[in-house]
Task: structure prediction
Amino acid sequence: MATATSSLPQQEEPPVANGRLWAGVLLAPAAWSVAELLGYFLVARACDRDPPTGVAHAGITQDVVAVVLGIIAIVGLVIAISNLRAVGDVGDREMPGVPTARGRARFMSLAGVVMSALFVLGIVFFALPPLFVNWCNQAR
Result:
């Protein structure tokens, strides 16, 4: 019996688990999305005096939400940075032009760092208006 040999590259294990890679990419955008959605809800009800629909201290509530979700986004940034450090430098040593699991992990880690940093900045900008703007004292 002849043994079949394949010239296809062997499947290599990624240096970082897929769950950690996706957490580094998606945690900060998800936190920003939740902050924005809650912000729309809070701003729409900031000046209502009716207890069932009004939100007491909407500006403070929005800042508390921003701090909590900012911490979640920073956790995503830290995960992405640790993923990038775990992957290390990737070069086309064995087969140039052939994508590897290590190259994919490096790309996802780098994308996670960039995206997380931008979305953390977005959450910081989300938290600033309640500190400087009083929605209910505007001319109507």
Q: What stands out?
A: The chain has a mean pLDDT of 80. The helical segments are 18-44, 58-87, 101-127, 129-132. The CA atoms of residues 66 and 124 lie 7 Å apart.
